[in-house]
Amino acid sequence: LAVEGVLRAEAPDVKITGRLGLEQAALAAPAAAGAERLDLELDRLSWNGARAEAAGRLNAAAAAFALAGTKGTAGRLEVDLGRLGWEGGKAELADAVLRAETLAVTAPGGGGSAGKLSLGLKNLDWDGTRLGLEGRAEGTGLAGNGDGGEGAAGALTLDAARLDWDGRRLGWQGGFTAAAARVKVAGHDAAPDGVEWAGRLDLDTAGLDGRAEGRLALKPLRLVVGDIHTGLRAAAAQGKVEFGKATAAELSHLSVE
């Protein structure tokens, strides 16, 4: 590692570059974390007393972490920070990528796993109260369970042309596709060969009230409710749905085969 900078009366101006490799790396605080092998390559880490900037890559093998009742492991983890900036409680991130293999996470409410998972962030900004991002997530060999049910998918792609979150209200413009999916919840067992959705979702998480508008398409679907078994070759719907204390739907297109 190379460190250079200037010490000023008002604030230091420091820049760090270089590479760091660790065997059997371990961290105790603020979260427990470790890896059999950790490689860090810093293109730039700078701080002028008011603003911090970073660019670099992190690779970890046999990684594990634990924080506030949540635990996770990954056979391999790769992180490209892209361009990260932090100033006065505000942060921005651009062109960042995260890739994980044989990932497993457990939390008090449930858990999940993935054979492979990748997350690409084109832009992310945080102003202290609101999070906004543009990005794409892809995964294979996915499974998850919680108090409300369980689900799995052979492959899943999630696109966010724009996602905004203020701690209560979520706004998502984008879409998702899933293949070889299965969901079990509240006595329902649904197994579509494929699911595609594109549109906008607005959700108030405090009361689970919201509105969805867009197009949904289902490929061959098997549905089991109690002793009733139903099969569909295909189904598609386009329109808007409002849900919460009251539910209403307005569809401009509906087809079932």
What does this entry look like structurally?
β15 and β16 form a beta hairpin. The protein has an 18-stranded antiparallel beta sheet that branches. The chain is mainly β and 257 residues long. It is built from no helices and 18 strands. Helices cover 0% and strands 82% of the residues.
Largest sheet entry: 18 strands, antiparallel
Task: Report the helical percentage.
Answer: under 10%
Give the H and E element order. Answer: EEEEEEEEEEEEEEEEEE
Strand content: over 45%
Shape: globular
Terminal CA distance: 63 Å
Question: Which runs of at least 5 residues are low in confidence (pLDDT < 50)?
Answer: none
Q: So what's the oligomer here?
A: single chain
Number of distinct helices: 0
Radius of gyration computed on alpha carbons:
22 Å
- The total beta strand count reads 18
Compact description:
The protein is mostly beta strands. It has strands at residues 2-7, 12-27, 32-47, 51-67, 70-80, 83-87, 90-107, 110-126, 131-146, 149-165, 169-185, 188-192, 194-204, 209-218, 221-225, 228-232, 235-243, 248-256.
